[in-house]
Sequence to fold (494 residues):
Amino acid sequence: MTQLNTILAKLSEQGLQSLLCGGLKGIEKESLRLNQQGLIAQTQHPIGLGSALTHPFITTDYSEALIELITPPFAETTASLAYLTNIHQFVYQHLADEFLLASSMPCGIDGDEGIRIAEYGNSNIGRMKHIYRHGLAHRYGKTMQVIAGIHFNYSVPEALWPVLQKLTNSSLTLEDFTANTYFGLVRNFQRIGWLILYLFGASPALCKSFFKDRPELLSQFQTFDNDTLYHPYATSLRMSDIGYKSKNQANLNINYNSLLGYVDSLCKAISTPFPDYQAIGIVDNGVYKQLNANILQIENEFYNIIRPKQIAESCERPTVALRRRGVRYIEIRSLDLDISNAIGISAETAYFIEILLLSCLLSESSPFSDDEHIILNANQLKVAHEGRKPGLLLQQAQHAIPLKDWAFAILTNLEPLAKCLDANNPEQPYSQALRKQINRVENPDLTPSANLLANMTQTGQSFAEYAENVSKHYAETFKPVSYTHLTLPTILLV
Fold:
């Protein structure tokens, strides 16, 4: 019996299955503002939305036009999604004739020069955030930075920790046990992170204009139409090497085997100079080009599919917060925007992610070997570019395994956990969500990436045309709803 099933059995024997429920879920959703001509908005962040620097729920990411909507953490998935819906409705009261792009891959790009870096005022923190983004532009180019996605935040129910500690006969302090177990979750999730791209990837195509400043990459893709490139079996180009799987960081081997190992290796990366970035320079004629010339300017520059997180206090660095207070929650960063959903994520997706994260938490998790990150990166890139290819093989430890077989094994293993989470709920939302994902493995045509290509083909539209039309439809549904009728806390209106 696996560790997961053993723990589930012990929880059931003691009538404690309910402790698995109620983990806190929060969602961060990025969306690019476009004007009615389908071009990236050049306007400033709408004043009516409050300060992008200090607002807790509405801010910007890399670009002034890349809005980020953030929900507080809720124990109920439906509450998180309802809050995200409410924020959308509030935002649309202040967008005038602009709309939010529903796809992850951007449209309306006219090269890097047409992308306005986000501005946060003249305070020290505001200037730092702006200069940091200039550094990203010099290091990776601006175009990559306007790709949008969903970040899913999750924290384990607090009451579960001491019970897990006892069930696993751990001799660690509760604080150390919690940190170790969270890092076990992180390692397990990375080992099967390709599954998220297969099941939820929705970026198999992109506009040719995405490569205006990198024309040498055009030949790597097939032509869908005059304006669109694609890979026929791609799932998530957003998470490929032309998106957030940065070649610059491919050899950055962060230690995930312990909290201190993670913090120390990340601190080393943000304090070690890198020759290519030294060549860029830091200040030119009194104007900052980047914060520093180190491998990473700050911790957030490290792009990965999952991050252990702690809430930082004022002026506290993320690594310092982790070292002082351990892991508070984890952040999943590999979800594409669901273009078929007005808020970018469905309830079924959220339910499934929660099942998967809990399974990663409760399952055995051996330490990473020295070169394991190479295998994990290769699997992710392969699925990003050709995940729906019949007979596709992935690397599992030292052996090749068909993606389909591995996916079935993972999903089948989740069934007992889904039943535990569904206890006393006649609607069985977790089991229903799991069944939908099993169907997507059985039939790749049911995946979001396949659906997007099919819809573009059926409508005879380019990627940009299809994405913009869907986005404008969502805008029409949100705009008539006045925020004065919404159940928003007053802080959202500040």
Q: What stands out?
A: The first strand starts at residue 24 and ends at 34. The chain has 16 helices and 14 strands. Residues 484-494 have pLDDT under 50 and may be disordered.
